[in-house]
Design brief:
This protein is an all-alpha fold and about 290 residues long. It has 2 domains: about 70 residues, Helix Hairpins (Orthogonal Bundle), CATH 1.10.287; about 200 residues, Up-down Bundle (Four Helix Bundle (Hemerythrin (Met), subunit A)), CATH 1.20.120.80. It contains 8 helices and 2 strands; from the N terminus they run H-H-H-H-E-H-H-H-H-E. It has a two-stranded antiparallel ribbon with strand order 1-2. The chain starts with a helix and ends in a 6-residue tail after the last strand.
Length: about 290
């Protein structure tokens, strides 16, 4: 009953600790992730039912995200997120983004290893023979401008929310989400085009690193857009307070991180990758 009272009356929370009610979401989320991973492996190996298992796991993750974040919002509305809790949430998001930095670092490492550390035992080329790199000043440059514009509109939304103008914040967030959707549309078009041109996941290290790095970035754009879409709904409902909007701040940090990663991808994978070319001959041994 004390817990119920704390949910109903903000002033009855007398501590700074993050004490929450028992939740099923950690277990449901971890099991869903396991099912998704198993389904993905089976699907990639052509096993029967692999795709179905994958989508069951994906559905479980989506339900977990919706339910868990809903509960976090309810905790905040109930007054349980004191300054110490808000600091912990911000720190957790910062550490998560740090882990994402190392996630993408692995793809950049693989790309540069393939481009600069050519094996001397077999004849090879970078890019592989017959593969034409994606022209950087076409869709990649356009997508760069789109993401930079989305970062600007997101900053506009942040300033509006801090000033208590949630109506303007809502409009700026709608624009940001729309720009993210346009970015994804252009990326899908680019993938279809380059696949028809012969650049696929099977195109050696070049093809695999290109699609893994840019593809996972696209997934992050999708997740970030959904994150901001939730914030857009909250802005429409006037629930983002000028003095406390940790959820929106986390979404904004994530989106700006996605923007920065794309700048590195554009400069290295698209711009540098389109001009860098290496051909080696096998070493002669006696």
């Amino acid at each position: 009953m004390a817990t119920d009272a704390a949910h109903d009356h903000h002033d009855e929370v007398k501590h700074d600790y993050h004490l929450v009610d028992p939740s099923p979401w950690p277990f449901v989320g971890s099991m869903s992730a396991l099912v998704l991973t198993v389904g993905a492996v089976l699907w990639m190996h052509g096993a029967a039912g692999g795709a179905a298992i994958f989508f069951v796991g994906l559905a479980g993750i989506i339900v977990t995200m919706f339910g868990w974040w809903r509960d976090v919002l309810h905790e905040s509305y109930a007054g349980q997120h004191k300054p110490v809790v808000n600091y912990g949430l911000r720190l957790g998001m910062a550490l998560f983004i740090t882990s994402e930095v190392f996630f993408f670092f692995a793809f950049f490492w693989a790309y540069f290893w393939g481009a600069l550390v050519q094996p001397d035992t077999v004849a090879t080329a970078w890019p592989p023979e017959g593969i034409v790199p994606v022209p950087p000043f076409g869709i990649p440059l356009l997508n760069t401008l789109i993401l930079l514009a989305s970062g600007t509109s997101l900053t506009w939304a942040h300033h509006a929310i801090r000033e208590g103008d949630q109506a303007t914040g809502f409009k700026a967030l709608v624009l940001t989400v729309a720009l993210g959707a346009v970015f994804l549309g252009f990326q899908v078009y680019e993938y279809i085009h380059v696949y028809h041109e012969g650049l696929t996941l099977q195109s050696g290290i070049y093809g695999s690193t290109f699609f893994m790095a840019t593809g996972f970035h696209g997934v992050h754009v999708l997740i970030g857009a959904l994150f901001l879409l939730v914030c857009t709904v909250r802005a429409a409902q006037m629930t983002l307070k000028p003095e406390k909007h940790v959820g929106f701040e986390a979404a904004a940090w994530y989106w700006h991180f996605v923007d920065v990663v794309w700048l590195f991808l554009f400069v290295t994978v698209y711009l540098w990758g389109a001009t860098h070319s290496v051909v080696t001959s096998p070493a002669i041994t006696f």
